[in-house]
Amino acid sequence: MLWRFLGMFCLIFAVSERANAQTVPPAPAPPPETVVEEQHPIQVGDVIMAPRIEEPEDQPESAPPPAKPRHWYGAPILLADGVAYGSILLAVKVEPTSGVALPLGIGTYLLAGPIIHAVHRRWGRMGLSLAARAVLPIAGLTTGATSCNGDSDCSSTLVLLTTGGMLAASIIDASVLAYEPIADSVSVQPALSVAQDRVWLGASGTF
To answer: Of 129, 157, 170, 171, whose CB is crowded by the most CB atoms within 10 A?
Structure first.
């Protein structure tokens, strides 16, 4: 009986060993493939596209800065030109006064406007005023002289064109050039401080 039990045990052991020897282990799974990102080096000259930044459609347009206020000082120029024209007219109508009135009128016409611009420290306007007062009457005189014929009397044409040039220079000087920006106002206010041991009096303001 014992030998039969041992024999069966050996037979079962041998069969189990043979079954384990024939069993093939499963093949290992392949490792996952690693994704390598392709790098593109940036060179000089490459164009990089950036996303467009859209501005709001209802954005109000920036208003232009307000124009600075200007001061007109053409009244003294008009007054001086009136004196100049009156002196020239007096020299023409009253011949004995021509020795004084004519130089006075021409000098006042040429120099009064530029001097008024210089008083207001408008040096560029001073040069433009002097140039206009000298060039425009000469241009009128030259135009009248070239349009005259040798047989006809052109004195009236010369006087008319020369006077027109003088009037044009006066109008340009008084209406276009005689402006200056208004300076910032200066305000001064008194200041008083009273303490137990002292009294202080001063002034404060904006310049």
So the answer is: 129
